[in-house]
Amino acid sequence: MTRALISVSDKTGIVEFAQGLIQAGIEIISTGGTKKVLDEAAIPTLSIEQVTGFPEMMDGRVKTLHPKIHGGLLGRRDLTSHQAAMKEHDIQAIDYVCVNLYPFKETISRVDVTEAAAIENIDIGGPSMLRSAAKNFAAVTVVVDPADYALVLTEIENEQQTTLATRKRLAAKVFRHTAAYDAVIAEYLTNLVDEAEPEKLTLTYDLKQTLRYGENSHQTASFYQSALPSSYSIASAHQLHGKELSYNNIKDADAAIRIAREFEEPTVVALKHMNPCGIGSGTTISEAYQSAYEADPISIFGGVLVANREIDMLTAQEMHKLFLEIIIAPSFEKEAFELLAKKKNLRLLTLDFSDEPKQTPELVSVLGGLLVQEQDIIAEVPSEWQVVTERKPSAEEMNALAFAWKAVKHVKSNAIVVANGKQTLGIGAGQMNRVGSVKIALEQAKNQMNGAVLASDAYFPMNDSVEYAAQHGIKAIVQPGGSIRDQESIDMANKYGVAMVFTNVRHFRH
Question: Structure pTM?
Answer without folding.
Answer: 0.88
